[in-house]
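During the reporting period the student researcher (J.K.) took over the structure-prediction task from the postdoctoral fellow and processed the backlog of single-chain submissions. One of the processed entries is reproduced below for the supervisory committee.
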Amino acid sequence: MRRALSGLSLAIIAVGVLVIVDAGLTLVWQEPLSALYARHQQNRLDGELRAAEGTAPALADRQTLAKLRTQKRRMAFLARRMRIDLSDGKPVGRIRIPRIHTSFVFVEGTNAGDLRLGPGRYRDTSLPGLSGTTALAGHRTTYLAPFRNIDKLRNGSRVELDMPYGRFVYSVFSTRVVAPTALGVLRSVPGDRRLVLTACHPLYSAAQRIVVFARLVSSQARGAALKA
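J.K. obtained the following structure tokens:
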């Protein structure tokens, strides 16, 4: 009995130590268990996205692309085609933010399951290559915490979105803290192609949202959009 109680005590102590370590890592970096899951999912999504990038458009789409004489129009056409086929949790593109050393595959959708995979695109917003606002949400403390440090972005910080049909470069011009219900920040502004990034604020709280606004400064065709 004494041995059994001793073993149980050691097990309880070990669990307690693990909980403390987990909490400590979450405070200074990110929650480690969810990070392992998200890393596995990111590897899977990267493979799926690479496969999609290597797949030629359907014959009818290639015929349409051949009639479009500018890269801008070809990127817009491919963005519209992609939007039709997207579903929640599917890889959409890659986001890179050099200032905060962020690089992730982002997915379609912003529900809880989607955001466990990586940053997610708000479904009612635009895709890069089309007019309007493209908006992404991401975690700050769990599931690899892709947007943990977006509060460190400054005016002029660069954000890149790589889509199968183009690379889009944005420049940050504003940051705001708003209520979770302030969905107006996602609206499109006439004549403005912008990117909006959102995350819970402050760290370890969902009381508010931090919102980063960036404006498109350049785009470059990729894949099928390159072919005249």
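The committee noted the following: The chain is about 35% helix and 25% strand.
J.K. will present the remaining backlog at the next meeting.
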